Each structure stands twice: as C-alpha cells, then as structure tokens.
C-alpha cells in the first residue's frame, strides 16, 4: 500500500520546514545585510518565495505528477538522470547533515551546556531513524499533532515579547543600506524557499494533487509570515547590533520574557519550536534521500537504506562540524552556491528539457 | 496417529443403545462420574416397565424448573382450564408426543454432553436410541445487575454488566430498541467453550469493520478464554505498545453509545467487561457522563483531563530537568527556596524522584490487593512514607513530595484504568530521559511517543484521530463537547455510511 498524506499535512510540513533552521539563523543573517531594514528583505523574500513555490509546482505538474526521480530520468534520460539525481540527493544529504549539526550545536551551546554536540546529534538521529522507519504517513501525522503546539508557542512568544517592543529601532525605514537590503535576499532565499525543492521528492504522495499549489502556497506564506514577524521582533526588541552579534537572536528574545515577575526567561518555548521544526526537517530530508536511493538502485522498499544512511549522516555530521563559527560562515558562502546550482539551475534545465521533449512530440 | 486411533475406538464404544440405564452409565463414565451430575429414574406404569432417566448438572440448572418439568412431562394432566397433575404417569406415546414439542432430540453423545454442560436436562427413555434435551438453564451463579464499581459517575445510569452474557446483551437491547441492532454469536476456546457475541447496528456500522472483527475472532485458536482481556490480546492491532487499542467498559450506557456511533461491541460470557472497537486515544479521556452533564461543564472537565495527562506523564521529569539542568528557568526566589530544601537531601534528583514514585506505585498496588478491613492501615503507613516524615528524615525534599502527589492525583483522573497504567509506565522512561538530557530528553521522548501513537491503529482507524489526521467535523466531540443538538455527525473515520445522526429534536428545539 502506498503511503499517502493529505493536503493539510503537506501544508503543515511545508510550514514546519520553512521554520526549521530559518527561524533561528535568519534574523541575524538578514540584519547583517540590511541592518534595520531586514524586515523589508523578509517581505521581498516571501514574495519571491511564492514564485519559487509556483515554479516548483508547475515543474511537478509538467513532469506528470509522478515521483520526482522518475521526472528527472524523463528529462535527462537514464544516465543523465542518474547523475543529476545524485547531485540532487547530495544536496538533500547535505541538508540533513547541516540541520543535524545545527541542532547539535544549538542544544549543546544553549540548552545543555557541557554535553558534547555529538551526543545530541546521535540522539536526534536515532529518533529520526525511528520516525523514518515508521514512514512518511506517521511523520506527517506527528507533525500535524505538534503543529497546533508549535503555533501556540509562536503566538505566546510574540505576545510575551510584545511589551518589550521599541519601535524606534526600525527607524529610519529604507534610508540606509538600500542595496544590501536586496543583496540579503540571495542567502536568505537559500535557507528558506529554495530548500523546499526537497518536497518534490514526496509530492507524489499527496492525495489531493489538484489543490497542491494552494497547499504549497499557504504553507509557504504562513511560514514566511512567521519568519518576517520574528525578524521584526528581533530588531524591535534587541536592536540591530544585538541581533547581528547573536548567533541565535530568537533565543535571546525568549530570554527577554518577563511577565508579572514570575513567567521569566521561557526560552524553553523557543527551544521547543526550533527543536521540533528542525527534527521534522531532518526526517523529510532523510526520507527523500532513502526514496531517491531506492529509485536509482531499483529496490522494492526504501527502508533498507535507513540504517546505512544513518551511519553516513552521523559520520558526516561528526566530521563536517568544526565549530560554531563555521556554521554561519558555511551558510553565507558555500551553501549559497550549492543551493543555487541544485535548486535553481538543475530544475531550470529539467524544466527546459521537459518542455523541449513535449514540443518534439 | 495413536490419538486418532484411540478416538475412533472410543467413538465406537460411545454409541447410544435402546436401554436408558445403559445410556445413563455411558454418560456418567464420560463425565468421569462427576458428583454434580444428577440422575433420576422413573418407571412408567405400563405393562412392561419402561424406565425414564433424567440427567442434569446440579448448579447449572434451576432446580425448580427441573422439578416442574419432570412432573409436567410424566404425570397425566387432569385439570380442565388450569393444569392439575394427577398421580399417574403418562403412557409412552403421550410422553413422546409431549417431548417432540418441548425437547430436542439428540443422537450424538458429544452433543448430549454439550447440552448437559450448558445447563440442559437430558432424558433417556427405554426403547429409543436417542436423548431428549430440555432447556432448564437457570444457574444460581448469576448475580443480579448491580451498581458498577470501576467507572463511577455522579450523574447517569448506575447499572453495570454482569457475568452472564445474555443479561449483558439484554441490557443493551433495553437501551437500543432498534431492529437493526444485530448480534452474532460464536464459541471460542476449545476447553472453555466460551460464548462470544458481537453486537452492532447494521445500518450504521462499516461492513469492512464487521468482516475484520469477525475474521480476527475466528482466527483465535486457544483452549481457554476466561475474560475479555484474553480476547483483547488476540484481536488488538499491535501487541508491543503501552497503549490499549481496545476499549472496555462495565457500563451499558457507554457501550450503547459506542454502538450507536457505529462501533462494534464484543460480549464475552463470564465477565462484566465488554469490549468496544475501534477506539481512539481520545475515547480513553471521555466518560459517558460527559454527555449527561451540560456541554460547557463537560468541555471543561475534558480539558482538565488533558491537563492530567500532561501532569501525570511529565511532572516528575520536568522537576528533574529543571533542578538538574535548567535552573535558570526557575524564578530566582523559588530557586533559592528549592536549593535550601534540597540541601540536606543526599540523593540526586532522579534517585529522589525514583524512590518516591516507586514507593507510591507500591502503595497503590498494595491498596488494590488489600482486603477492605485492613485498608485503613495502608493509608496511615502511606501518609508516613509519602509525607512529612520522609521529608523530616532527610531522604527527600518537600518539593518532591508535592511533585509525587500531583502526579498521583492526576493519574487517578482518567476514566479508564488501563490508560492510566500506560502513562504510569511511560513516566519512568521520561524521568530517565530528563535526568540524562534535561528538556532536550523530554522533547525527544515526546517526539518518540507521538510518532508511536500516530503509527498505532485500532482496527484500521488511526489512533490519534481526529487530531492527526485532523478532522474538523469530529472535533465537536473530541476535546470540546458541543451541545447535543449541534452534534450532527457520527465520527467520520469509524463509519462511512449513515454519518448523520437524526436531528428531529433540533427541529423542535428551534421552533
């Protein structure tokens, strides 16, 4: 029996994936470029992101609404498909590893001081293995279950932090850094909407494909709004300088909470939001990775790849992580290049070749 | 090989003859001369004496009924309007005639023994190579319908099921007077021959569900079924899970409500606990009383139970995580007082919590097993072990006592005992996770727990629905309990046909 997820679950997964790493890194990266105008950068990113989403959906429909790896083989032929498919898979692999590293780093630096990040990585990976073995349906359902809690936590965070807002921090609006406001879009897009290309790998399992675009867009816009609000709050509450200086500005945001002298420092909320969104992000990458391997090696079940992949991912996370400073460095340089190659150029080529093949017929 | 030969030989031997006394001896031998097998001989007053032998199992039959039947069958009725029995026995032909109306003729020895065991009276008559069985079942082992003991309510019917399957089914029939309430019977257990009945409303229930239940019940191959728990273990979807995927209740109104929603009830003879499938996680947090109280009260109580789930599962682990790893999250003054309390305690928080939790679990278990007369002893001792004395002795901190008490109280909130046990088990896992990884461990545990829950199914229905997969129309009876006149639909995932409930009342209401 083929596992199916419904549109709502798909939408929630998109939302959660957008928040994943983004919610914790983006404020600092965006502010680094655009300073007080980084919220404008966010707005523009969301608008561009919507176009990206529409494009990915059209690509999926153009390819005949089937398994993305089949679409790749259709577009590039058997051998070409193999090469490009593996390029895509390596990107997915990188994504899984990077998310795992950030989760390990975040927890060991901010939550559990003294616990080596490798241990955290290992625990999260083991949990992910359990999740992926249960399959996409279970992951989607669990995400659906946690969705309401994540939304409630986000709203609580906004509410609790709102008394600390100092609107003076956003002024002057769009007076300085005009160029870098737009330049900032480039790395931010890679961390948010371009990562959604991974979802092409599971799109064929959505039961209601007619309204696919709608679910994709709603999830994308919802996630975009949350990221925008978080950035805005960071600038307003922490100020530009502090936002840039902090690796995890949103966590500092949580620490600022103080209500009635009792509800203080509930950065646990932030940790909750971030841990859960990031976990599901890892799970989705992991499952797409396993499914891709299953397709290219023509296996009946993807479950056989899960444990070997876990070793690979753990080793990559173990060796790839040098120190905390390496992560933003990586995000701002190598990752941008890789992202644009895999998530823009390859789909573009694929789309072109699909159209050409269609015209030939 | 050997066994089948023996069976064959035995079969040849176990043939009825035309002699009633011989047949009696045969049955007695086959039942191992059990003492409760009662036989009575009567000779018919005819030219050559014809012997009639009555056999029945003492205790399984109603004595009064047997006596009446013996007299009524044997003696000539000389009354006109009202039967008045003379002191003369009937002739053989009249007897046959009478028996052909009220009795079943049996020729197989096995079926004769079966009917004896099922509380029937068996007659052998000279000159007939057969037996007649008359239903005289009326055991005095049945207790009457009494107040239920496991799921108490403040408001609502107080009756409960009994050990007799027929009374149980009748209790349901009394509530649902609909011809489409169908029952099916089967016998499970080669030795116990336990009667099992499934009941459902034919035009509401999902056909596939009935088929599934039927096939799962038929697959059971076991010698003994003593309680519905035995059946539950055979038919549940997954064995290795701490969560129950079959609902059981002693309350006829709960089972009737389930049947009306399109579920299937499974009655088992010999136990007052009736099973209901399929069941969702949320059903274990609902009581029948929710529907008898006003809807706002019921909703509030359900929210309270949700809170109780979180508290009974996580309170000790959150305490451990906070005191060991995340002191910065505790408000400063509370932290100082906590630190002062813990100063004299020689154990780490996990050990402290484990000591108290295990002590409490021991007390609870002891409380269940203890006879009521010594029950007060346990509460005195319990108050010492879990109370101020433990704090004064310097073994645990006062805060820990409060934590354990909160956990204990909230684990008594659940209407369903087996669900409370699952949470009790998981709590220890969470405590260990919290002691090793703090909140990170708790989060990981929650993820694993929710993933496990969403992988569960009860007869094909996702266990976590209507939350995951989300179903907006079923939300009206999940956490919220909307007023009954607003509740139009039966749960969607359970039955696909005849989803709408009748709404005539609402029309009247709106007028």
Description:
The complex is a heterodimer of chains A (361) and B (511). By secondary structure, chain A is mainly α. Chain A has a single domain, classed as Amino acid/polyamine transporter I. In chain A, 75% of the residues lie in helices and 1% in strands. Chain A contains 15 helices and 2 strands. Chain A has helices spanning 7-19, 22-34, 38-62, 68-111, 117-134, 136-161, 178-183, 185-191, 212-238, 240-245, 249-255, 267-296, 306-320, 326-332, 334-360, and strands at 258-259, 263-264. In chain A, helix 2 packs across helix 3, helix 3 runs antiparallel to helix 9 (212-238) and helix 5 packs across helix 12. The radius of gyration of chain A is 20 Å and the shape is globular. The mean pLDDT of chain A is 88. Chain B has 17 helices and 14 strands. In chain B, a hairpin with a 5-residue loop joins strand 1 (37-44) and strand 2. Helices cover 46% and strands 14% of the residues of chain B. Chain B has 4 domains: 2-135, no CATH class; 165-279, no CATH class; 294-462, no CATH class; 472-510, no CATH class. Chain B is of the alpha+beta class and 511 residues long. At the A-B interface, helix 5, helix 6 and helix 12 of A face helix 16 of B.
